[in-house]
Amino acid sequence: MHLSEQNSYTIQNIDPIQLVEQYGSPLYVYDGGTIRRKTQELQNAFSGINMKIKFACKSNTNLAILRLMREIGVELDVVSTGELEMGKLAGYDTGQITFTPSGVPFHEVKTAVEAGAIVNVDSIPLLEWFGQTYGNTKPCLIRLKPNVAAGGNIKIMTAHADSKFGISVLLLDQILTVVKKYDIKVIGLHQHTGSDIKDAEPFLQVADIVFEAALQFPDLEIIDLGGGFKVSYKPNDPITDMQLLGNKISERFKNFCEKYGRELQLWFEPGKFLVSECGYLLVNTTVVKEDPARTFVHIDSGLNHLIRPMMYGSYHHILNISNPAGEKKDYTIVGYICETDTFATDRPLPEVRQGDVLAFLNAGAYGFTMSSNYNARFRPAEVLIDNGVAKLVRRRETLEDLLLTQVGFTE
Ligand SMILES: *Cc1c(COP(=O)(O)O)cnc(C)c1O
């Protein structure tokens, strides 16, 4: 979002307040240009090696976003058969889709494998089942847990010793025993360390662990190092230096390939990095309440639409796009849900008046996909702006949508 010389905010020259007037509030708006830019940035950083991007689509499954990803050469990582179907609807071949389950029922794995997706096997029992079911007829990747703690906070770390995800590298012998027993065709090793990882160091550390383990598997084609790159949440926030990370990992990857004796593909599965910054949640100010403790600004949204602050304590930058030049004051921004849903405490913002439109930044990842109908509230509409054109890509929900699955009250 840019502040113009006329002191108004625009996204690709489109006035976001006008979008709220047209499509209602609250509204999710995505800037396709940002997605294209972030993708290019990642591709450039790894231009020296054979690198493939698999968008972790749990961060945003709007079909228009998935279609855009497909157009720009980004493949998919899915965590459920539902997401697999979304990928197919967006036009992906199942061969371009990786299924990375976390302890799902084996019939889901079967559905995905038989549809043609490749699976990241995440437990010894699943590996046993995979061997018994497919022997050496279907390829798979194995998800390792490298026992490295990294990420923004404990709730979004996925590779420390206590994490539920993947098979501990300490069980490598056991993995190899099962692989040999069924002659399982392991074509890749995978790991995903967590989210909001700023520095290159943890990525290098886990890469080394995976490369070391990889020497035990003779038929590899792929090393998948997951996602988790940190993005900017506040102005001047330190973020992953992608070019630096790209150079460092590429160098180690090349050395590894030499040692391994063959050129492999390196995969990444970013969610946040590709879509966090593209998204805005636009809301209306419902009440400005001067309380002896602090000034509360209520908005027509809540943790039902954006749960990240309450779930992980995450920071979202907020702009008062209706009054950019207003005098700065401290506001506590809260939702309309009957539950504590604080978005920001004592946040300096240009004077907020009832009816002002506020914009939450970094709402493109884990925003809409984590939303709910709590308090019988409707989920917002979504708009994608691409090539200078704003398009409605999801309509706002209605009461009928809420009643659709309740039995006995509608015809
Ligand atoms: C969630 C997830 C990702 C994406 O994480 P980001 O922090 O959004 O980049 C990648 N891989 C797997 C397996 C995941 O579960």
TrEMBL record:
Enzyme Commission identifier(s): 4.1.1.20
Name what cofactor the protein needs.
pyridoxal 5'-phosphate
PROSITE patterns (alphabetical): ODR_DC_2_1
A Pfam family in this protein? Orn_DAP_Arg_deC
Q: Which residues carry this modification: N6-(pyridoxal phosphate)lysine?
A: K58
Q: Which residues are the active-site ones?
A: C338 (proton donor)
* Similarity annotation: Belongs to the Orn/Lys/Arg decarboxylase class-II family. LysA subfamily.
Residues annotated to bind pyridoxal 5'-phosphate: G228, Y366
Checking CDD domains in the record gives: PLPDE_III_DapDC
Q: What NCBIfam families does UniProt report for this protein, alphabetically?
A: lysA
Protein name in the entry: Diaminopimelate decarboxylase
